[in-house]
Write a structure and sequence with these properties.
By secondary structure, the protein is of the alpha+beta class. It is built from six helices and 19 strands.
Length: 341
């Protein structure tokens, strides 16, 4: 069996369980063991993937809710599998229910990007790339046929598509042609590499002598994206040789958690001053200077901007002759954003 087939199937299982249970952890699986067992029974047959589309599974197996749990206790019946086979199982577009009807026809497209960056101790940008997703929320009557095009598709690398996307139009003209699933789904994922700068900077400085270490961290806007940068956080793990820490900031809140993680919540960076954190670390007995320096994990969010530069050109509905409403949004947040000290 191709190894990627097993990996893809496991990713499908994880996505379906996330949709059903609202998360994926040991406690949720224990609490909903019967539904998990029923889902696996439908998703795989004799070792081969069978039904992995969420809309078909939701027609066959009802998602868990309070009412179904109460009924199972009262009636003693623990199965919630439907007796009828969903019509989409015999359709050419199994990801979509054929008889969908809406009073208002709407399509919303979100560009959601995460910036991964590594900055070395000299402040030099070693790596900076974007991993993004095109997320679509579609509520359209019937069986719509959509096309989505970008103004600058040449910047995209490592694209990965939902099964609804026809590959030939993308290969020839970089146009996404597809019949969308109903509701919210991930249309495609992509990567944009070798970006030249980051929207914010973090400058840590450590000076140690005599068993103590002075810490100073500055945060500010390096490249203004034109939109507000908020949800800014800076975290780092205190080295094991630190006995105690006394840290404070001129903006935001500094907390030292039980596992020796220092968390600095800044929120929105003010325009009139650069947030700074400073304080003193006490080293364990016998150590004069700090020899192990932490790596800073940075978080942020920018609404309304795709920092990769990707731009949506147009979204058209080809087959169904009625008006529909469309909207576009963008969001960039920090992924694995590291600053070494």
């Amino acid at each position: 069996m191709p190894p990627l087939m097993a990996i893809e199937f496991l990713c499908r299982v994880a996505d379906v369980l996330n949709d059903y249970l609202g998360g994926l952890n040991e406690d949720l699986i224990k609490d909903n063991f019967i539904i998990v067992y029923e889902l696996l029974d439908e998703m795989i047959d004799n070792g081969f993937p069978l039904t992995t589309e969420p809309n078909i599974l939701q027609e066959m197996i009802a998602p868990p809710n309070i009412v179904s749990k109460v009924l199972s206790v009262v009636t003693g019946s623990s199965s919630n599998v439907s007796d009828t086979l969903p019509g989409a199982t015999a359709s050419l577009v199994p990801w979509r229910t054929a008889d969908t009807k809406y009073a208002n026809n709407e399509v919303y497209v979100d560009l959601v990007e995460e910036m991964d960056a590594t900055i070395n101790r000299d402040g030099v940008l070693v790596k900076c790339e974007i991993n993004g997703e095109v997320q679509v929320n579609s509520h359209i009557t019937g069986l719509p046929d959509l096309t989505l095009s970008f103004a600058n598709p040449s910047i995209l690398d490592d694209v990965r598509f939902h099964p609804c996307v026809r590959y030939r139009p993308w290969e020839s003209n970089q146009i996404l042609s597809f019949v969308p699933p109903d509701g919210r789904f991930k249309l495609m994922s992509y990567r944009v590499g070798k970006l030249k700068n980051t929207p914010i900077y973090v400058k840590p400085q450590f000076t140690s002598d005599g068993g103590r270490c002075r810490v100073s961290v500055l945060v500010g806007i390096r490249n203004d994206p034109g939109k507000t940068i908020d949800n800014v956080t800076v975290q780092f793990q205190l080295p094991s040789c630190i006995l105690s820490a006394d840290l404070s900031s001129n903006y935001g809140i500094v907390n030292i958690l039980a596992n020796k993680i220092c968390s600095w919540s800044i929120g929105r960076i003010p325009k009139d001053k650069a947030p700074s954190m400073s304080g003193t670390l006490v080293l364990e007995t016998g150590l004069e200077r700090l020899h192990v320096f932490p790596t800073f994990q940075v978080g942020f969010r920018i609404m309304g901007v795709a920092l990769s530069g990707l731009q949506i050109d147009k979204l058209d509905l080809k087959t169904v002759p009625y008006r529909f409403y469309k909207g576009f949004r963008a969001l960039t947040r920090a992924g694995e954003f590291e600053v070494r000290s």
